[in-house]
Automatic annotation (TrEMBL):
Keywords: Cytoplasm, Glycolysis, Kinase, Magnesium, Metal-binding, Transferase
Transmembrane segments: none
Name assigned to this protein: Phosphofructokinase domain-containing protein
Pfam families: PFK
GO terms under cellular component: 6-phosphofructokinase complex
Phosphofructokinase domain ranges (all copies): 4-312
The keyword Hydrolase is annotated on this UniProt entry: no
Family, similarity comment: Belongs to the phosphofructokinase type A (PFKA) family.
Pathways per UniProt: Carbohydrate degradation; glycolysis; D-glyceraldehyde 3-phosphate and glycerone phosphate from D-glucose: step 3/4
Gene3D superfamilies found in the cross-reference section: 3.40.50.450, Phosphofructokinase domain
Length: 358
């Protein structure tokens, strides 16, 4: 008899991951199932790295950042072989793994990348997978929100609130760089709530001279300026100044955190040159992912986790547990999968940006 549920977490850590693990495990134990944690995302399937998730193991984890399972960016469809660039599709190892560990279902918690692998496993092997939408980037399709974004946005807002008086005292320009890849949710929400004067998001294309004019106006009015900028921007005249570091990850995303020179530095240099005002780059970095989980992310995580288990128990597989109108709701994986991502639509960013205090 297949009596266990498997759980894994993939991609970058985000608040709420442990709450999902807790919610799903609690519900599974109540129903008499065992729970097997797969370590470090999809990689744990290849390495056979597992841990039994017992009631003692989940005690007190729901409000802790990170993930007790560990995570990785392993893409099962393109697993690196040896030291060169050769890759192999290892998806066929998942059905074998599930049989070995008597898994009647697999809960894959992650963003667009983790979800796209789960979708392939469901379509090609008919595997009983259910996903949970995690990411501080907020860019998973088919869900109103992803858990992790709220905590990270609060953390970003507090970091920005914390530098206003410093920059007001020195009269400098701050270029605060925020994670989020090609989506500006974290930059927009955190930047606006933090009281930034200028916000630049990846969804828009900017002209450097216009940014400089805007910053000059802010400095003339307030004596300093705080810009919150996304880690990916479209400022065509400056793109050649961005220096790449390591190559792309296994999902073909640029590893932005490893860049030798990113947008904060490039923009600060440029603004100092064009305004004559001293400018400082501030890269918020991985601390954005580590703040204490917000109430919303914990509550979402617990409900999504429980729902994910219920779907497996009821045989409603191939679903993402989306967050829709404040409820955990199953949506077809094809809506969220296929490598799609959700940028901020103009009808959301335009009115929010109109609130900037210029
Ligand atoms: O996708 C989540 C994310 O936090 C991005 O916002 C960021 O660019 C990336 O992960 C950083 O990845 P890493 O953990 O590999 O440095």
């Amino acid at each position: 008899m297949l009596e266990n549920v498997g759980i894994l977490t993939g991609g970058g850590p985000a608040a709420g991951l442990n709450a999902v693990i807790y919610g799903a495990t609690k519900a599974a134990h109540e129903a008499g199932y065992g729970v097997i944690g797969i370590r470090h995302g999809w990689r744990g399937i290849l390495d056979g790295q597992i841990m039994e998730i017992t009631p003692a193991r989940i005690s007190g984890i729901a409000n802790k950042p990170g993930t007790i399972l560990g995570t990785s960016r392993t893409n099962l469809t393109r697993v690196k072989i040896g030291k060169g660039s050769k890759t192999e599709d290892k998806t066929q190892e998942v059905p074998v793994f599930m049989k070995t560990h008597k898994l009647c279902g697999l809960i894959a918690i992650g963003g667009e990348d983790t979800i796209s692998v789960a979708e392939i496993l469901y379509n090609q092997f008919d595997l009983p997978v259910v996903c949970a939408p995690k990411t501080i980037d907020g860019d998973v399709c088919g869900t109103d929100r992803t858990f992790g974004l709220d905590t990270a946005a609060n953390w970003v807002a507090n970091a920005i609130r914390g530098i206003h008086e410093d920059f007001a005292s020195t009269g400098y320009i701050a270029c605060v760089e925020v994670m989020g890849r090609k989506a500006g949710w974290l930059t927009l929400y955190g930047g606006l709530a933090g009281g930034s004067h200028v916000i630049l998001i990846p969804e828009k294309t900017y002209v450097m001279s216009e940014i400089a004019d805007q910053v000059k106006k802010v400095v003339d009015r307030y004596g300093y300026c705080i810009l919150t900028i996304a880690e990916e921007l479209k400022i065509p005249a400056l793109i050649s100044k961005i220096q790449e570091g390591a190559g792309p990850d296994s999902f073909n995303h640029a590893q932005i955190a490893l860049r030798e020179k990113g947008w904060a530095k490039v923009l600060a240099e440029q603004l100092q040159k064009s305004t004559g005002v001293e400018a400082r780059p501030i890269v918020l970095g991985h601390a954005q992912r580590g703040g204490p989980p917000s109430v919303l992310d914990v509550i979402m995580g617990l409900q999504i986790g429980r729902k994910a288990f219920e779907l497996i128990h009821n045989g409603e597989i191939g679903q993402l547990v989306a967050w829709v109108s404040e409820n955990p709701v199953p949506v077809d994986l094809k809506i969220a999968g296929g490598g799609k991502f959700k940028p901020i639509p103009p009808e959301i960013y335009e009115p929010l940006l109109a609130n900037l205090d210029l």
